[in-house]
């Protein structure tokens, strides 16, 4: 209101002028009004942090928030990919976005991510915890505890840390948190026990945090996608494109909706949970799975895919 009030004062002073001075003053008044309007508008624009936003679901989510004129805090571990998504976000709107190169499993990096967001924009309205890892394991693996630690550090511990750091800022804006989970948190799957356990724990954390933060006006939800078509299988799992195509054909033949999920399907759900349309929704796990929960997918097809993977390359960000 202060900036609008200043504009009105300048406008009132014009009546005391005449001739060219009055014309100049009128033009100046219009400029001040335009400047003040945009200044107020920018101050009111919301800010979203999307972790692991350099590819897949995170990237699609960041760009879609940008189209809604959110300030975007893009996060990833590779500078070139972070900068690429920042440029895409700024091309999608005229609103400023920033990139923060950080490993969210490191406490100092997590703190820097939140601090940079506040330094740049002065507020946080939405935290999307998207970064995640997966690994193929069996109970007989000698390194099972190491795998467990790596998965839990990213899929749960980092989320808790970021929520802890963000809540004081989210309380001021009555903001919200969206945790990107998985249907793996709801159903067991062969040889992915550590991943399933991490997502089940994340869903319970979401529900507990929703109870705790509800009285403060902060909503907390998770989104639980099934398999989503990205380049992850080819670039990070050692799978061939032919193998991925065969796996996706199994999905098309067995999911009730007869198609493979896309990153945009999940991003739309995240935007919904972050919007006023979901203002009475908290502690929910929104499943985006094309009806997969109710489908009878042949286990052998899934097992063939899993056993064909290069197990040495199974840890990476953005696998959800």
Automatic annotation (TrEMBL):
Gene3D superfamilies: NAD(P)-binding Rossmann-like Domain. The keyword Oxidoreductase applies. InterPro entries: KR_dom, NAD(P)-bd_dom_sf, Sc_DH/Rdtase_CS, SDR_fam. GO terms for molecular function: oxidoreductase activity. Residues 46-226 form the Ketoreductase domain. This is Tropinone reductase 2-like protein. The lineage of its organism: Eukaryota, Metazoa, Ecdysozoa, Arthropoda, Chelicerata. Keywords: Oxidoreductase. It comes from Leptotrombidium deliense. GO terms for biological process: lipid metabolic process. PANTHER family: EG:BACR7A4.14 PROTEIN-RELATED, ZGC:101858.
């Amino acid at each position: 209101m202060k900036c609008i009030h200043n504009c009105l004062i300048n406008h009132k002073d014009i009546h005391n002028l005449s001739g060219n001075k009055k014309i100049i003053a009128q033009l100046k008044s219009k400029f001040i009004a335009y400047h003040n309007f945009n200044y107020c508008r920018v101050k009111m624009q919301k800010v979203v942090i999307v972790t692991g936003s350099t590819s897949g679901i995170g990237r699609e989510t960041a760009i879609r928030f940008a189209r809604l004129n959110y300030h975007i805090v893009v996060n990833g571990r590779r500078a070139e990919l972070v900068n690429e998504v920042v440029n895409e976000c700024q091309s999608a709107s005229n609103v400023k976005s920033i990139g923060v190169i950080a490993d969210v499993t490191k406490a100092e990096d997590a703190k820097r991510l939140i601090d940079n967001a506040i330094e740049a924009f002065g507020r946080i309205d939405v935290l999307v915890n998207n970064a995640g890892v997966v690994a193929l394991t069996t109970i007989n693996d000698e390194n099972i505890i190491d795998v467990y630690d790596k998965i839990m550090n990213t899929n749960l511990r980092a989320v808790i840390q970021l929520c802890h750091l963000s809540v004081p800022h989210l309380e001021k804006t009555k903001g919200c948190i969206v945790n990107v989970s998985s249907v793996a948190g709801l159903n067991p799957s062969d040889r992915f026990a550590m991943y399933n356990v991490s997502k089940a724990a994340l869903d319970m954390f979401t529900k507990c945090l929703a109870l705790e933060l509800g009285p403060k006006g902060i909503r907390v939800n998770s989104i639980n996608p099934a398999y989503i078509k990205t380049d992850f299988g080819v670039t990070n799992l050692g799978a061939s494109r032919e193998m991925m195509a065969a796996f996706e054909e199994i999905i098309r033949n067995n999911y009730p909706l007869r198609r493979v999920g896309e990153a945009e399907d999940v991003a739309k759900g995240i935007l919904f949970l972050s919007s006023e349309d979901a203002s009475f929704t908290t502690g929910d796990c929104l499943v985006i799975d094309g009806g997969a929960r109710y489908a009878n997918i042949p286990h052998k097809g899934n097992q063939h895919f899993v056993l064909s993977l290069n197990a040495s390359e199974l840890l990476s960000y953005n696998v959800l």
